[in-house]
Design brief:
alpha+beta; 13-stranded mixed sheet; 13 strands; 23% helix; globular
Length: 296
Amino acid sequence: MITIKRLTECSVQDAVTAWNEGFTGYFTDAQMTIDSFLNRLTQEGLSANYSIIAFDNKEPIGIVLNGIRNINGKKVSWNGGTGVAPQYRGTGVGKKMMAATLAIYEEEGVEIATLEAIKENEKAIHLYKKLGYEIEDNLLFIAHEGSFDSNPFEEHLATYNFIKTVPPAVQNLSFYKSMYCWQTQFKSVRDGEAFIAVDDQTGESIGYALFKRIFNDEGVHVTTALYQCEAAPHRHDQHQITANLLSQLFAPFDQKLKRITVNLAATNQPVVSFLEEAGFEKSVEQVYMKKIMLEE
């Protein structure tokens, strides 16, 4: 007997068991502890009230984590992970959980539903398409480990001023990508940082980058993760602005670090091209999908 419950009705251990079982044999290692699971809910704005667990009698066999935000006056949801235990895949459990998830969205007045799926996960993408989701973009995880002999963006640099600030500061920029995928929005880049590029002649804000520096248990900087990097669309010098932002956030280049992007839009060609030229390599690719729940 398959039943669906809200996460608020379940124990944390059931939730973690459902997650780890649901992502067994996944394309990347997604296993979590209770601590990392609770941390993810908080860090990424996911809600126990909107999330669900599937049970076979008392055994947790599947999970969908969900969050809802108001963005530009619209209610936007995010499916932050759908997993089904291996022995239940292909039995309709995933379809049943997604139906329950969409019912929650409708109940909460969600206008736009979003999710990501690993590009190779064709079965999941096929299900989402049948439910009305459409692919909006491809998302890239691009990485470089180690140091550089010199700044790989140096030949493209120009003279700009930079303001180092916190992620919420970018929300008032006219060209801030508020509808980027959930994990790259400023609300998700908790404990992160931002650079705003400023025209040194006019004082106009002309670009921004959202990023996070990650430190190990000894307090050593080991990773820099880029979430968004954008130049103002009306500028003729967008490539130079982009190169300068990348130069600022990925420095110092003589330091051995893991430098990565998180869900970088494949359509952001200036950033993708600069990183590929610098020797960054693609590790994972996802599709970004949307479903319009309520028409304007």
